[in-house]
Amino acid sequence: MPEYKIKVNGNTYTVNIGRVTDDSVDVTLDGRTYKVEVEAPAKKASKTPVLSRRREVINAADGPVRTSPPGVPVDTGAVVAPLPGVILKLMVKEGDAVTEGQPVAIMEAMKMENEIEAPVSGRVVQLMVKEGENVLENAVIMKIGG
Asked: Among 90, 91, 95, 99, which residue's Cα sits nearest to residue 125?
């Protein structure tokens, strides 16, 4: 227990401070323990502004219905970037015939070159990027039609 010397009406006393609760303190004075009630000082108003925002909860049932898992394009002939990176080389041009699994582009992602393969067989309908262009993950690079 911490020990303090206090002066009351010119007399000096040694007191021990015991258990402290929200509104009382156990004080031992001359071998006798007293329960002393205390009032908390009034809190000063804070100068720091308090930000209060309404928390908006979005109902997933209100969103659009997906027919494919996230990250997978809806169009089966879409060739997508597996990672964010730079298109180094396009190995086909519009109108070229491709087979499923054939490399159609090379991209640099995370300091590595990655071959991007055709997901389906068909003809290249549209190139969506140019060589040297930066792309994000799941960006459509080209479309292959039947």
From this structure: 95
Mapped onto helix, strand or coil, the DSSP state of residue 62 is helix
Higher pLDDT, 49 or 125: 125
- Domains along the sequence of the chain with CATH: 3-37 (no CATH), 78-145 (2.40.50.100)
> Which H or E run includes 120?
none
Rounded distance between C-alpha atoms, residue 145 and residue 95, angstroms: 10
Nearest CA to 114 among 92, 134, 144, 89? 89
C-alpha distances in Å from residue 112, one per residue of 81, 103, 116, 141: 14, 16, 13, 18
- In angstroms, the CA 28 to CA 16 distance is 5
Label residue 41 exposed, middle or buried (CB < 10 Å: 0-12, 13-18, 19+).
exposed
Q: Where are the beta strands (DSSP E) in the chain?
A: 3-8, 11-20, 24-29, 32-37, 78-80, 85-90, 97-98, 103-109, 112-117, 122-127, 134-135, 140-145
pLDDT tens-digit series, residues 44-97? 777 787 777 776 666 656 655 544 455 555 578 899 999 899 999 999 999 999
